Amino acid sequence: MSYIRIKNVAIYHPEKSVSNDFYLKHFQEKKGKNIQNFLNVMGRKERYLIDNDEENGLTMGIEAARRVLQKANLSGKDMDMIVFSTQIPETTYPTNAVLVHQAIEANNHTIVLDSNANCAGMSVAVDQASRYMLSNPYVKKALIVGSDYNSLLSSPDDEITYANYGDAAAAVILEKTEENTGFIDSIYYTDPMHQEFINYPANGLSKTLKGTGNGRYIKWLPFDASDSLPPTYNMINQILERNNLKVSDIKSYCFSQFALGNILKIQENLKIEDKQITYVGDRFGYTGTSSPFIAFHEAIETDQIQRGDYVLFWTVGAGFELIAILFKY
User: Fold this and answer.
1) Are 312 and 325 spatial neighbours (Cβ–Cβ below 8 Å)?
2) Alpha-helical runs (H) found in the chain
3) C-beta separation of 254 from 16 below 8 A
4) Residues 85, 116 contacting (CB under 8 angstroms)
5) What pLDDT score does 211 carry?
6) C-alpha distances out from residue 325 to 115, 137, 189, 234, 293, Å
7) pLDDT value at residue 34
8) CA distance readout (Å), 178 to 4, 182, 223
9) What letter does residue 307 receive in the DSSP assignment?
10) What whole-number distance in Å separates Cα of residue 175 and Cα of residue 178?
């Protein structure tokens, strides 16, 4: 019987780090607004941002891909599948995955595709690739890249994006194995109740390209993000129960780093111990699609998790879409 394990993970972020001081001064001077409480709730201190014309979401993804291949002592020719997850593609023709394929010199047989489930995207890609690998005997290794150039679309008038987002990428290699480990289960919850609150382009692509709609920044209207928490509690309990696990059996919970306040509410509801939570949003800001996997990388690098430990990923995409994935690392 075959299983799908995470062989390696690597990340990339730009060099420039910006502290809260910049945003506190910016919004005080621009709008006469003190956003300290907002930054506290979101759990921000620093974030990495692209500050040059050479880097973008694609270049970050390629660098993360090269790093994970080097860590795994593999080459692009070892990859049977490449999935690039982003909500801010550098190009739509060709796919970003095709450009990664070129950069790492992958083989002609390699499957390539871009995917977008907004901030849930990389988690969804890892889930779907794992399930596809189980059904296709010819796909033994897959490269999943998640990268968002978030600051590119963040309005200087909007603290929820401008002061919250960071730019970064993550890459994982999935590997087929006969060892009883790796991917175990996943669960989804989708409710389009917030589908009008986060939009890019704000008035749709067709109107933007025709010059009749505003398309520069993300439109982010105020809404109650805690609406996603009750179904989150249920889906995490459900995925644990149907796999005969308890909350305490999970060594690391790699949650969306969108808001520290949400993580703390999930922790309180499920009675998760501090040592089981991996949080990096204070250093990276909110990185979108790569967010849970940057936390996962941190858990490995700090020896919070070892091979054989259970890891649970959870994140949320705009609209909203929730996903939780259970792995035995």
Assistant:
1) yes
2) 20-31, 36-42, 57-72, 96-104, 121-135, 159-162, 205-209, 229-241, 260-270, 281-284, 291-301
3) no
4) yes
5) 87
6) 17, 22, 12, 14, 12
7) 98
8) 9, 10, 46
9) T
10) 10
| 207 phi, psi to nearest 5 deg | -70, -35
Give rounded-to-5 percent helix, strand, coil for the chain.
40, 25, 35
Rounded to whole angstroms, how far apart are CA atoms 253 and 243? Answer: 16
Q: Are 302 and 319 in contact (CB under 8 A)?
A: no
Pick the closest to residue 155 from 120, 200, 119, 193 (CA basis): 200
Of the candidates 321, 316, 320, 312, the residue with the CA atom closest to the CA atom of residue 241: 312
**Alpha-carbon span 106 to 99, nearest angstrom:** 10
- Rounded to whole angstroms, what are the CA distances from 262 to 42, 62, 161? 8, 31, 17
Q: Given this model, what pLDDT does residue 71 score?
A: 98
Calculate ∠ Cα 32-35-37, nearest 5°. 140
Which pLDDT does position 193 carry in this prediction?
86
Series of mean pLDDT values for 10-residue runs along the chain (329 residues): 97 98 97 97 98 98 98 98 98 98 98 98 98 98 98 96 98 98 98 90 90 86 87 98 98 98 97 98 98 98 97 96 98
Q: What contacts 210, CB < 8 A, 6 or more positions away?
A: none
Gap between the Cα atoms of 97 and 109, Å rounded: 14
Cβ contacts of residue 111 below 8 Å, gap of 6+? 80, 81, 82, 139
pLDDT in tens, 293-328: 999 999 999 999 999 999 999 999 999 999 999 999
CB 105 within 8 A of CB 75: yes
138-141 own/partner pairs: CB under 8 Å, 24+ apart: 138/80, 139/80, 139/81, 139/111, 139/176, 140/80, 140/175, 140/176, 141/7, 141/74, 141/78, 141/79, 141/80, 141/81, 141/173, 141/174, 141/175, 141/176
Q: What are phi and psi of 80, to 5 degrees?
A: -95, -10
Q: Which residues contact 268 (CB under 8 A, 6 or more apart)?
A: none
Q: In sequence order, what are the beta bridge partners of 314?
A: 255, 324
Max distance between CA atoms of the chain, in angstroms, equals 62
